[in-house]
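Discussion board: Methods & Data

I've been asked by a reviewer to show the raw model output for two of the constructs in my manuscript, not just the figures. I'm not sure how much to include, so I'm pasting the format here to get opinions. Each protein appears as its amino acid sequence followed by a line of discrete structure tokens. Is this the kind of thing reviewers expect to see in a supplement, or should I convert it first? Here is construct A:
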Amino acid sequence: MRMQERWGKTPIIIVGSVVATLLLVGAGAGGYWYWQAQQADEEASVSRGGPTVIPLAGTEQTDTETEIKDEKSAANTLVSLVKPQLLGKEKQPSVSGPFGKVGENNFFVRNDTYYGAAVEGTSEQAAQTLALIKKQLMLDKYKETIRQKGSTTQSYEALFVNDTVLCLVYDIKPTRNDGKTEVGMLCADAEQFKETANIYEPYVTAYKDASKLDVANRGFYDLKTAESPVPGYRRASLRITGENQDTQSGYLGVFYQTPDGVWKYFTSSQGMVACSKYQGTELQNAFKDEPCEKAGEVSKVGS
């Protein structure tokens, strides 16, 4: 699978009844995208003159907070060291942040903040740049896990991990007539991977217990939560990848929380869920007013 496909982003755009109609025939992401879109900020790439600081959707940071985090970040220090040596034209990375499995949690997550640098140049420049990045990481005793070996025509992708930082290193072979190859690295601090994994753990556990699936090679990212109109209930969604973090085979996991504070897995979704699936008081309360499909039309849970 090409790098552009595996790590690409999927914008969420909801435009009135036209899209609602498309959702009913399976062309949209479903009712859950509706309430997610109301609260989600789009992923942003922010150029700060140094390494690229890329917060994921749903995070907000002031400039001061970001600067303090940068100063303490081993990932930022690494990227700042390597970036001036890269050969070619500087550009924003074309891939999303890496999935990592750090600490005791046996599943992959995508970090809240990562630091990136990328250049575009000739095949000769790309080869030198990739070798330079790998040499620096090897000197710092990073362990390489190759996800896609790479060749003259196939893109390269690997994770480099040590005790403090996880990096995705890649090249993307030309897809246009200009013959330019992109080479880049995106790095994040291991400690933040642990924090993200700890936040996701209740949802992953609920998913694993209900689905009976092994989560060891799956990735979890883009958590969204919302209050139900019924006091004491909440609902959430978490994007879940297929095996080996292949986002193209992923889906949306849907969860709800009862007044006792326990999160439960409800269903997976790649389209709008039928209203008839919301059986029982718990589901009715947790998802009240959530869009659902009824007899080929858009309705709401509890209507």
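Construct B, same format:
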Amino acid sequence: MNTKFWLPTYQYFIEFPARIQQADALAFAGEKDIDGILCQGVLASWGTTAVQRHIDQYLIWINSETKRIEKVEYTIREMYNFIKGAAYYRNYKNFDGILLPTKMPVESNLVKNGLLHEMRILDMKWNVVSQEELRPDSSLTIMGDEK
């Protein structure tokens, strides 16, 4: 497992609802039934919604009733241009005022049947580790949305 790729990727999907708001190219993608739930689709990208060689794009399916994310389809251009995936946002729970999905099954075109893997949030504890411990070398630039 390539921890340098997967750890920030997992973090990105947990932070996705806040971070995707930085996308500046959006398009309505219609309606779709996902597991019996009517959803509205929004294509989100940067610069343009047209296919781009080095920029991931996200098709976000939002529950028409609750306005929560049900599913995110995405490209993985950082690894290989042909890989696509989808993460479901399931089992939302409230952690001290922050609503998070606790179960995120992931599909990919890398597997013919079933799931590639499943991300889960088992529990949440706030500020257990200080910023100084997480960033011992403060001279390094903060990566932000970069992986």
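Answer (T.O., handling editor elsewhere):
This is acceptable in a supplement if you add a one-line summary per construct. For B, something like: Helices lie at 3-19, 131-134.
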